[in-house]
Amino acid sequence: MKKILIFIALALPILASAETTTKFGYVNTQELFTLLPEVKQVQSRMDSLNKQYEDMLVGMQEEYKKKVSDYEQKQATMTDAMKQIQEEELYTMQQRIQTAYQTAQQDLEQKRQEYLVPVQKKMIEAVKEVGEKNGYTYIFDSAAMVYVAPSAENLMEPVKKQLGIK
What we know:
The protein is mainly alpha-helical. The chain has helices at 2-21, 29-35, 37-74, 80-134, 156-163; strands spanning 24-27, 138-141, 153-154. The longest helix is centred in the middle third of the chain and has 55 residues, at 80-134.
């Protein structure tokens, strides 16, 4: 019994100090992410790339429509062999347009990831630096949380300062 009391007497100060040194903070990463100037630059680059693909696809579709119209006008005077050749050509064009659309979508997603990963890493590093600098044990993402305790500190301002955002 005496050993238990001594253990409790020694452990209480340690437990009490551990409890007081645990610091909790939170950051809304979704909000923070939208504030980063790099995100606006990425969006501008993505808009430009999207426009390029859109222009290319519109051009392909206009060419396809023109060929369909020509085919429909000349169809009555064509031989069966000529019709078959024209229809195969139209089918091939349609397949190329679909392939180009799918390739564009994949490339746009790949570029988005390529551009955003460094921005996300920068944001995470800033949160880590603020946490380490100020002695936080845990920093949570309030965008993914249902409840934030009043004892947790909002670290948006220090992280924004770390990132150079006003």
